[in-house]
Amino acid sequence: MAIRIGELPPDLIGKLTAEYGCGPVKFSGADEALYERHLLFDSVTDIEASDARDRFEAIARSVRDVLSQRWIRTEQTYERENPKRVYYLSIEFLLGRLLANNTQNLLLDPVAEQLIKEKNLDRLSLLEQEPDAGLGNGGLGRLAACFLDSMAAMQLPAMGYGLRYEYGMFKQSIQKGWQQERPDNWLRRPDPWEVARPHETVELQLNCSLEVRGGALHPIENRPSILIGFPFDRPIVGYGGKTINTLRLWAAAAPDEFHFQEFSHGDFVRAVAGKLGAESITRVLYPDDSTSFGQGLRFVQEYFLVACSLADIVRRFRRDNPDWSALPEKVAIQLNDTHPAMAVAELMRILLDQAKLGWDEAWDLTRRTLAYTNHTLLPEALEKWPVEWFAMLIPRNLEIVFEINRRLLDEVRARFAGDNDRIARISLIEESPTKHVRMANLAIVGSHSTNGVAEIHSQLLRTTTVKDLAEMFPERFNNKTNGVTPRRWLLLANPALARTITDAIGEDWITDLTQLSRLKPLAADGAFRDNYRQAIRQTKVRFADWIKSKFGVTVDPDSIFDSQVKRIHEYKRQLLNALRIVVLYNRLRENPNAQIRPRTFFFAGKAAPAYHLAKLIIKLINSVADTIDNDPVIKGRIRILFIPEYDVSLAERLIPASDVSNQISTAGYEASGTSNMKFMMNGALTIGTRDGATIEMAQEAGEENFFLFGLTAQQVADSRSWYNPHWHYDNEPDTRAALDLIFSNQFSPNEPGVFEPLRDTLLTHGDYFMHLADLKSYLDADRRLVELYADPEEWARKAILNVAGSGKFSSDRTIAEYAKDIWSIEPCPLT
What we know:
- Helix 24 crosses helix 33 (771-789).
- 48% of the residues lie in helices and 13% in strands.
- The strands form 5 sheets. Strands 1, 2, 5, 6, 9, 10, 11, 12, 16 and 17 form a 10-stranded mixed beta sheet that branches. The protein has a 6-stranded parallel beta sheet with strand order 20-19-18-21-22-23, with helices on both faces. A 3-stranded antiparallel beta sheet has the order 13-15-14.
- By secondary structure, it is an alpha/beta fold.
């Protein structure tokens, strides 16, 4: 079939205008021709000579062709209906690969599979050509991506705003046990999903200039400058393809200027210094914040995100709404953590200086429009920015912050007369040692809603972290327990289990995860347990095949797959897990004839480049792994694998294959967790502390189907004043033996003393995150877990009950609560 450039095949036009979900779409020659057209005209490539990347781009662009008209119709519907819209501001969006996800959500899998078969393509090779977009690091960014998926699936009028980082956090490799970082240039090749919007740029006024000198970004005070926000849009495909929302990412650019005189005189760098300075703002995700330069760049990134996004939101609002008073009735802005908290002052600036509203009206509109989600209880994660940076970059915003604070403290004094300590804690300005703006306080004061992300987190937020503000504004605080999208984390990631579930209860669970509760009675059904075990075995073999092809490593799919995958941090306690394994290793050394079930312990996660202790924990895990691999008595009975470069794609493979999920944070420190939900949804049994959403998960599935251990959050808080880790070292033989092995260089014979900082952490400096306090309890829970695994029928029964109890933890449920309780928005189906 001949296709003219710019013309879509007729039957594809039919697919564009059809309501997906009316049955499988049939393959046709038009789909084949569309794929070949992209190969020929986009890549200018001989079809026979094309490589895997060329073929990936051609298929991805063919899928984008299919969704484009519906993407346009979605936006047209919003413009025509003028509904209230939600705008989700997040510094991270950890999207993962989009080809398989978008194809699935468009219900085009039959078309894609037939095309792959007809063209004799390697599906795995095609999918591997797409990099994970370097737009996020961990749970915060992945949550934002799940929320966008749910909003589109539920046909809510929504839009995400983030930054288009040229480089992701970093690519991780392991050399001699140590984490090594290298650039994540994920945009090296064209991204077939993004669409540049040069006609919708935003111009920002800064009170200083930025330029690159000596390889670093430097501000030049009192030299006002202009910064350009250049938008790139990505489609967010709702399941069934009925709604396609937009994620808009901002890239920083300088105005079109070139200092020809400087260039012609040989000063080539200064001629483009302004351009380099501007573009550096969105160069990297998470600059190294151990330096003032890295912190300053993060500050500029956050303002850039907020200023560009609010300018765009206001432009959209004003297009159809001439009355500023309608802003909260048409716009809901959700601040994902403190990173976009500058929106409070920036929206006030717009309303005061551009709209010319009075203070009281502007403040009322701002608070009713903005809402804030808190994601952490850790004080160091509650951002505070130097007042001098505000003064240098955005002095008008600082004036507004000061005025907000003046009025706030007047109100505090009126209600709590003479309570100067309370006034100091509530103030938006931390006075010492130097003046800083408390961004969490600003977000709470300047919004109508502050929510935590799990019941225990929301409670601790109100009673501990921001207690004074919660007493000041109790009506603003609420809980929205996190969730994950079942489309990616079960339907896409675990096809074998998804088929087993669908065969048993139908496919309604895909958009209503509460339907999984119908699996509860089937946990007692022997035939269903057999089907479940076969699905899990198939998934483990699939993972073993992948890791063999990817890393050349052989794993035993009949061993217990025991996983802990998350950002490396002391409070997440990968170190506690490592201590558990050292204890098990030492027991086998002392009793080599002990009969145990083979176990494979999986770790994955990145440590921040400047977080030296976290990097040392990675070193310990790999050193223990090497020692075990080289011990003929232990080899094959215990195996440790630290898989580098943890990302969404790796999680999609490892989580469904795991038998055991470790959720072992110090109680009271994990806000919610979302990997815990993904593991549960895929049938892994949880060994964990009573922390974050794990508490609610155990309530849903039954604590008897979890392996809970350790101190509670209240016990952790109550024992702070007297806890002594030396007691555990002196009185618990397993604990003492494990630590002695580590500090005797058993795992570091060629690097003696390398793990001494761990001695300081665990013993000298008081074991702040209470690893030793929970180790014995952890080992007891581990023993119960292994005993249960020896009974396949009972293990399968409990695993099925976990899947059946995971329905609450869909991001669809979370978003429905946000929509009803915070945003007050309704679905807006295409018309």
